[in-house]
DNA sequence: GTGCGAAGTAGGGAAAACCCCATTGTATAT
DNA sequence: ATATACAATGGGGTTTTCCCTACTTCGCAC
């Protein structure tokens, strides 16, 4: 089997040196190139066919987020594992949205890197435990914020049902057909929804529902 | 040290039996109660002080999502680990938003459960690798959707202006007043928007705009 | 210049949404 | 048992939205 071709992107030479040594100790890995910032990396990938990129996030000139975005735009099949020094990382979401396949702390154990490379190479994902916790914390934060800021009105079962259908784009007639009720009844439920939410027409109600995340995208 | 008090919630007695045996094999765990559905669980927790809940998701009467939501509303410090049989789970997001501390496959290894209990008991989170991959896949889906968004139809200046006002909740009349145009003209622009977006009424158009992030919250 | 397509402007009439009001059923309190 | 409250169901009639069509203006090509 061919070796897995890896490119390192990090602005600290010392880290690259150490990390290269570490990776070369895996018999199945070959470090084919290195870059010290995003721009350098972008020109590198034109000439090198890599399987996996280890990408630092904080870098001069062009940071890991933008570099990853641009690289994945051109080569969507590229597999990038993001590296970060500390955990207080605001870029986590951005990197995930950019489409990286993994996200790890630089301080991870050797075995973790081995595991990550194999998993990502095989088409999977790898995330450090710490990263997963961080993500989950973010979700929890979101949840708590939601609870605090909206004391949402309470809806009856029918109202919830109607609201769901409204937010699917159904008109009164369609909702009536779907629920086996008369249009008039649907109108009444909507009327109640208007009152409870402080809205005054369907469009407003839909906007309200989206803003308060009563319905999902 | 006191044992970690655990409650099991699952509608299959056989699974509960097996799982209880498994948990009891950990010297530091004590299963203090069991429930076979959400309602039963909700009345249970009034009388039992539990450290960790293992919560099945698919259950009759009251499913794991709602049960967790209600329980956490009353006892926000409750630590819930969600259990699921298969991976094709639409409830993942809902459970996370409900605020569970962990999410695992029932088919997980014994060591995983041990690890999960300890981590969650100590205030952390635990998610099965498979769950993490699933989450990451979802993020990737989001990313791809964003990319698709790029081939949006092109709107004229007036259309963009009208769309913005629509998404603020304005009716045709209000838009007409705000733009110093006749209602009829607004209607025509909306009509064009319908055609370009493949929608057929204002509500649909608003949903379209939100989904494609044409307008911001 | 003349023609042609795209954006912007409306009117008339049909359809849907909306408001005010009435009736029924069910649960809770006194 | 009776009163109260409210969810759920609808009717009549007004307002708003929506579709089809038409006219003007502007830029651009020939």
UniProtKB/TrEMBL annotation, chains A, B:
It comes from Marinifilum breve. SMART domains: HTH_LUXR (SM00421), REC (SM00448). Keywords: DNA-binding, Phosphoprotein. The modification 4-aspartylphosphate is found at residue 56. GO terms for molecular function: DNA binding. Residues 5-121 form the Response regulatory domain. Residues 148-213 form the HTH luxR-type domain. Pfam families: GerE, Response_reg. CDD domains: LuxR_C_like (cd06170), REC_NarL-like (cd17535). PANTHER family: TWO-COMPONENT RESPONSE REGULATOR. The keyword DNA-binding applies. PROSITE patterns: HTH_LUXR_1 (PS00622), HTH_LUXR_2 (PS50043), RESPONSE_REGULATORY (PS50110). This is DNA-binding response regulator. SUPFAM superfamilies: C-terminal effector domain of the bipartite response regulators (SSF46894), CheY-like (SSF52172). GO terms for biological process: phosphorelay signal transduction system; regulation of DNA-templated transcription.
